[in-house]
Design a protein that fits this description.
The strands form four sheets. A seven-stranded mixed sheet has the order 2-10-9-8-5-3-4, sandwiched between helices. The chain has a two-stranded parallel sheet with strand order 1-12. The longest helix is centred in the last third of the chain and has 22 residues, at about 255-275. The two termini are about 25 Å apart. The protein has helices spanning about 15-25, 45-60, 75-85, 100-110, 220-225, 235-250, 255-275, 300-315, 340-355, and strands at about 5, 65-70, 90-95, 115-120, 145, 150, 155, 165-170, 185-190, 200-205, 295, 315, 330. The chain contains nine helices and 13 strands. It is an alpha/beta fold and about 350 residues long. β3 (about 90-95), α4 and β4 (about 115-120) form a beta-alpha-beta unit.
Length: about 350
Amino acid sequence: MTVYNFAAGPAVLPKTVIQRVQKELPNFEASQMSILEVSHRWQPIVDLIDDTKARLLDLMHLSNAYDVLLLQGGATLQFTAVPLNLATQFHRIGFIDTGHWSQRAAAEAEKLPQLTAEILASSGIDHYQKLPVWPQITNKYDYIHLTTNNTIEGTAYHTVPTTALPLVADMSSNFLGQTYDFTKFDLIYAGAQKNLAPAGLTIVVIKKQRIQQLNLPSMLAYSELAAKDSALNTPPVFQIYVANLVLQWLADQGGVEGITRINQRKAARLYEFLDQSQLFTNSIKASDRSLMNVPFTTGEAQLDQSVIQAAAEAGLMNLKGHRSVGGLRASIYNAMPEAGVTELIDFLADFEAKHK
C-alpha cells in the first residue's frame, strides 16, 4: 500500500530528495562524515549555504538587491523580528486579517512597546471564507503585512495586492508553491516545514536597503545576521542541506512557474470533486481558494472522524482538520504527487457512495 501524507506541516517531501538524503547521510561530499555532524565553518557547508541562497533568489527571479537569511526560530519569531527591524519610522503596522496566523502576527507585534498594530481589513465577519476587500489606506504605516496563504482557513492571495506602501508577507504555507511578483515585497518570511525542508529552518528574503543598523538583540537584528551570512550562531545545517536538494528538485519541475501549473491542476481536481459531491463541502469563495490547503467537511463531526479513520487505513494520512475548526483538511503541497490527489478523490467518492 502506498502511503500519502496530507499533513499541514511538517509536511511531505519529494521522494527523490528523501532517497538522496538516505544515500548521502553517512558520507557527505566523500568526507566520511555525516551532514549531521559537520561544522558550519567547513568550506563545503559555506558553499552549500551560498548555493542555497543563490538558488532561492534565482527561482524567485530576484536580483542581488535582496538578501536571504537562513534562520532558526520558526516564522513565529519573525512576528517579533520584522517589526523590530522595519517599523522604525512611524512605529505603526497595518495588518490584513485573513485568519489565525495573521492574527498571531498582529498580536505579537502589538506586544512591542511604542508600536501600534492596526487591522486594516478583515474577513472575520465572513468566517474567513473569503479574502477581505483591500482597504483604502490613508494613514502612514511602516509596512502592510499579509499572510499569502491561510493554512487553517483554506484561502490564499493569487496576485499581489496593489499598494504604494511597503509590503511584508508571511508565505510559510505557500512559499515557492505559486507564482507572485516577488519584487513587490520588501520582505518575505517563511517557515520551511511545509514546502521546503524539515522543521527548524526559517527563510527571510529582504531588500538589502531595508536592513538597518539598529541596537537590537543580536539574534533579532537582520544587520548582524546578514553580516555573518546567517551564521551568527550555528545554523541548521541539515535543514539547509535538505532545502538545497528540494530547490534542485523544484528547478527540475520547471521552477515556481512549473510547480504552480501542477499545483493548480491538483487543486482544481479536488475542488471539482468537492463541488459536485453530495456529502462533502468546501465553503471557501472559489476565487480565493488555496492551492495548498483544502478544508472540507461532511457537516457531522462523527462522520468526519469516520472519514479520517477509514482514510488512514487506506494509506491517506493526516486528513484531520485543524483543532480550531474541525472537519477535514488535505494539504497538497509541492511534493504531493498528482497520484496522491487521485487516490484521495477516489477514496472520498467511494466513501460517499457507501454513506449516502
